[in-house]
Design goal:
mainly beta
């Protein structure tokens, strides 16, 4: 049975008990290192950026203005977050731009030359942002410095190219492309050099969502529609694959569509979104999956921070 992405609101979700703080988050153990998860959650109808500990506690709201926030990502030192914001301004069609903000919610600034850009990803060196942008109706992969200069187009195929992410050493960029398919959600994972050369496909799926590189560099993780072994079912589940296209591994098996995966700094855990805007964490082998309370209302777009050193 065909299982397409089914992330819909089935009514008002119950308000779950959680702590929302306005202070800077501290090391949960009193000493470092530790990590955080950024995610988006609706406030008065607009998704805003939040951070929390990996157990779903100590939630901090980072953004608090108009526009629908999406796809937050961390700077290499975890002091800032880049994200996309969609604005309507009374126009029939929204537009998006990229912003950077400190994790305490201060010093927000717009990255120039990012009109109609989405899915930003910070380079390991901290000086560049990779993103997808629609210019003249075609979605392609671009790289720009954090001050908005030196924008470079990396893909030129007429098919949609999106969802870029950097390898650990910054020498390569993974992305998704519809160039190998015939249906709307057909997608391949491609890898290219950081200058756009040597673009090559490593995986194809009839439905592909939200590929990302693991922080330690050994895997690419993504959501994909694939048959469930031993059944006639097809689910959108979480998978990993090596950057050379070998060792495809299924992490989850669930009728809930599972997307937006992000791997912890040590490579041992995964956070992802599933079903009706819920966040889950599981071990890298798929064991121990459990739901994070988070805010309990349209929580999605999780992104695991780099390791943070305690003070």
């Amino acid at each position: 049975m065909h299982k397409f992405l089914k992330i819909i609101i089935l009514g008002v979700l119950p308000l779950l008990s959680c702590k929302e703080d306005t202070l800077t988050q501290a090391d949960p153990n009193g000493n470092g290192p530790y990590s955080l998860i950024a995610f988006t959650s609706e406030v008065n109808g607009n998704p805003q950026v939040f951070t929390m500990f990996p157990d779903g506690t100590n939630i901090i709201q980072v953004t608090n203005d108009g526009g629908r926030k999406s796809h937050p990502d961390w700077s290499p030192d975890a002091s800032q977050i880049v994200y996309a914001a969609d604005y309507f301004n009374g126009m029939p069609q929204s537009y998006s731009e990229l912003y950077v903000i400190n994790t305490d919610g201060t010093s927000k600034f717009l990255i120039p030359n990012t009109r109609d850009a989405r899915h930003p990803r910070w380079s390991p060196g901290g000086t560049k942002i990779a993103f997808e942008q629609s210019l003249n109706g075609n979605w392609d992969i671009y790289v720009i410095t954090t001050d908005g200069s030196n924008k470079t187009r990396l893909t030129t195929d007429p098919a949609v190219d999106n969802t870029p992410d950097w390898s650990q050493d910054g020498s390569q960029i993974s992305f998704q492309s519809a160039r190998d398919g015939t249906q709307r959600f057909d997608g391949s994972i491609y890898i290219m050099n950081q200058d756009g050369s040597e673009q090559r496909s490593i995986f194809f799926s009839p439905e592909l969502f939200c590929s990302a590189w693991s922080q330690e560099g050994s895997k690419i993780i993504f959501g994909a529609l694939q048959p469930v072994p031993g059944t006639t079912e097809e689910y959108v589940d979480i998978f990993t694959i090596n950057p050379d296209g070998t060792n495809l591994t299924r992490i989850t098996t669930s009728a809930d569509s599972e997307i937006y995966p992000s791997i912890s700094p040590d490579g041992q855990r995964i956070v992802y979104a599933a079903g009706v805007h819920r966040l889950f964490v599981t071990n890298i082998d798929g064991s121990g999956a459990h739901r994070l309370d988070a805010r309990g209302r349209t929580d999605e777009d999780p992104s695991w921070s780099p390791e943070i050193t305690g003070q």
